[in-house]
Amino acid sequence: MIKKKIAILGSTGSIGKNSLDVINTNRKKFKILLLSANSNYSEIIRQIKKYKPKFFVVSNFVTFQKIKRKFQNKKTIILNEFSRVPIKLKFDITIAAIVGIAGLEPTIQFTKNSKKILLANKESIICGWHIISNIIKKKNTKVVPIDSEHFSIQQLTNSYKDADIKKIYITASGGPFLKKPLNSFKKIKPKDAFKHPNWSMGKKISIDSSNLMNKILELIEAYKLFIFNPKKYEIIIHPQSLIHAIVVFKNGLSKFLYHETDMKIPISNAIYENKINIENIVKKKNNFLFKLKNLKFEKVDKKRFPIVTLVNNKFISKSAPIILNASNEVLVDCFIKNKIPYNGIFEILKRVFKDRDFTKYAVKKTPSIYEIYKIDKWARDKTWQLISKNYEKFI
Ligand code: NAD
Ligand code: MG
Question: Which residues line ligand 1 (CB under 6 A)?
């Protein structure tokens, strides 16, 4: 049996570890050729020992040096940069699961050398889809988005045209603050925002989920991935996170996709082309009928989640998403490090969008990699500037 060659970019993260668990349930079928991570020393060591990948890319230089020293003369080759991965290396499946724009270049690189790519790294889709999609067309790479909403939309709309579709709902759980009194929002601490009611995820996406920024990013992700008119999408609150997308067709039929809140489900289905007995991988009991009768849906409350007011053409088209993404990365990081309050994320974002240079950077239709980084850098610098300018208000 020929083993499928696997690469996991961001293997120490939440999606990365879930992917390794999926692969581990049928190890004989796979050869783990490459793993990658930033700086989680103990997890990198654990993974090298357990999975013996041919290559491990460690992005953080200090961690790279430590790991390289430890694994000298061992079978795993430790690299510090993706550009050092031999170009002749080919993969059957790559799982792109780095967080943030740091995933952009590796995702581009692995779209070139992989037959199939499972895309989790939404920030790279948001900033560089025009580059990734060109390679996909050229190289005939198969793409499966594994962000659960986009996985669902892809499954539900396969073989349908824009003209067939009336509406697409993207569901949002509403996160940990769906019922929290509005006057207590100011006191929200990072640890409160990490407590997502349904999913266990990385830190950044947990914060993004708590204020619905994750849904704005997902709307943009959907605009990029699918051919449907952006006006057809709507965010809807669904606290149970069991339905991930609903597609209303013009023919009077509506379809939705239901699955339990475990990312191993979209990951496994993407790896095995839906031909899998999920009970071999996810041990949770699926009491579908009981849960079905309790599904709730409600409109988004804009007072509670003011970030949804950003769904305005000016902020989410052309190169504006690069600015949105970069500012948000800085702001989430600052909030996690207690440098700004929770409300500061939206307050500073609004100011970035009002800056007189915003339009200059937001109007590029298909920026090159170089231009993407230039726009990203402007947004990061501007965000830092505004954070320090408003610092007095925050303390
Ligand atoms: P995470 O924080 O748990 O893991 C991130 C991974 O990226 C880690 O392996 C880390 O080492 C690596 N990384 C971080 N910074 C890096 C850098 N500068 N250079 C190289 N590698 C770096 O994140 P996650 O929750 O697994 O999410 C990963 C991606 O998948 C994100 O884009 C997220 O939006 C998306 N996603 C996640 C989930 C989920 O359930 N966790 C669901 C849908 C989409
Ligand atoms: Mg999602």
Answer: 10-16, 37-38, 40, 59, 97-100, 102, 120-123, 147, 199, 201-205, 263
